[in-house]
Amino acid sequence: MRRLVVCCALAAMLWGGMPAIWRGVALAEDYNREALLDRDFSNRDLTDSSFTKANLRQSNLSHSNLQGVSFLAQIWR
Fold it and tell me: C or N: which end of the chain has fewer Cβ atoms within 10 Å?
């Protein structure tokens, strides 16, 4: 996933200048969120309340490698 973030950010920076780097990071973050949600719903008993979409989303984002990237993006804006 880190490679995807770096590639998207680099492509955005080269294509649109330094301000566009955040669009590349946001694109990679959106892709990562969707991939994590899709992966977590496979082979699970979804009748259990602990596997609701909101709980999975919060759990995934708190353990995501993009947490540091998001933090840096907020600082540098």
Answer: C
Question: Which pair of tokens denotes residue 56?
Answer: 């999975």
Question: Residue 25: is it exposed, middle or buried by C-beta count within 10 angstroms (0-12/13-18/19+)?
Answer: buried
> What's the CA gap between 6 and 28, in Å, rounded?
9
What contacts 24+ positions apart, CB below 8 Å, involve 18-21?
A: none
CA 45, CA 50: separation in Å to the nearest integer? 10
The pLDDT tens digits for 13-66 are 666 665 655 666 666 676 666 665 555 555 555 555 555 555 555 555 555 555
3-state secondary structure 20-59: HHHHHHHHHHHHHHHHHHHHHCCCCCCCCHHHCHHHHHHH
